[in-house]
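From: lab user (bench 3)
To: helpdesk
Subject: output format question, protein + arabino-flavin-adenine dinucleotide

Hello, I'm new to running complex predictions and I'm not sure whether the block I got back is the full result or only part of it. Here's what I submitted:
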Amino acid sequence: MKTQVGIIGGGPSGLLLSQLLDLKGIDNVLLEKHSRDYVLGRIRAGVLEHGFAALMREAECGERMDTEGEIHDGFFIAHDGIKDRIDLKGLTGGNTVLVYGQTELTRDLYDARARMGGNIIHNVADVQPHDITSNAPFLTYRDGNEVIRIDCDYIIGADGFHGVSRKSIPKDSIREYERVYPFGWLGVLSRTKPVSPELIYAKHARGFALCSLRSQVLSRYYIQVPLTDTIKDWPDDRFWVELKRRLPSDVAANLITGPSIEKSIAPLRSFVAEPMRYGNMFLAGDAAHIVPPTGARGLNSAASDIYYLYHAMLDHYKNGDDTGLAAYSDKALARVWKGQRFSWWLTNLLHQFPDNSDFDNHMQQTDMDYLFTSEMAQASLAENYVGLPF
Ligand code: FAS
Ligand code: PHB
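Helpdesk reply: Thanks, we reran it on our side. This is the complete output you should expect:
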């Protein structure tokens, strides 16, 4: 099999790039190790920057997002028993975010690929990139006992944090930066009316909590839990009691509880791999970087990677211009690191760190006091949350 671009990974990064390239007549094949239903079974991100939404529309996948997604002009930070609002729209000259689940966005991308007859191969085993630094790289994968080879001009590693692409780069050609946080997020999805029309991020002595949503009948809640906890430690009743304890009393009083339809614990880490290119293989999305979900930057950092790669591939195949490909890693990393900073800062502001000194905790409280006594500080938070320019 021969193609122009070989993509590893059928999550949002790989699917969005595959769709954008196909629309411009750039041939690509996408290899995904799981089934479509397995990928769609993951409950992940919920907040899209306007840049991501624009890219979905350019990929002719934005219709349901614009119909069913909710535009949010702001969100709340609960602290010291009160709620303060961050006025995203007012502080950023009109920018907002779109609340639309990653599951639905991924479904829209899969449906669009199917409509276009996109070449997506599921349930592939042992995907391996080969001759990455040559001008004739190729991919192999196993289908039963048969090994299939795909010759391509470029390989895109969009296979997430645990994928094969980043691990195929020699250790002396890649540098990794990481911070693992001493807690995780226990997430619950419930078919209940959301407690608040806008998101509430809560800082509390018992731990962080987040009230989010997927629609007016589907709520998404999170609480900070120790890394040693498992979902067996958190039957629904205990979860709801603990969530209420971390929310301002007026919010807790209005919380509608119900059976969890999904429950999972995600560890939190900050991670960046540099560079995001090795030979003719380009890393995108979680394959290259991970942020704690506090700032809703994970999926949105993937969007700018895809935007830069898409335009670089267009310049290469349509104009014979390789400056975009040469500049990709530096350009993507410049925005990735700003997303890392914001996510790290907001995580430090809102979570309880068991090893914090009294001074650390006083700094955290002072950071919160400064935020809500300075409109400039709120504007800085807002411009990062709606998404820095691509
Ligand atoms: P993904 O990991 O989504 O997709 C990679 C794909 O590659 C997967 O489908 C995988 O099956 C496939 N793959 C892996 N190895 C392969 C191989 N060897 N061969 C072929 N295919 C392979 N972000 C937020 O903004 N907000 C959140 O609340 C949030 N919550 C999250 C919770 C969890 C548990 C996780 C893990 C992430 C969360 N994220 C969140 C971040 C998440 O949304 C990612 O940013 C997003 O999935 C990135 O998309 P991709 O880069 O496509 O990677
Ligand atoms: C979610 O709805 O899953 C969500 C929203 C905002 C975040 C993280 C997760 O910062």
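A quick orientation on your result: The two ends are 34 Å apart (CA to CA). Let us know if anything else is unclear.
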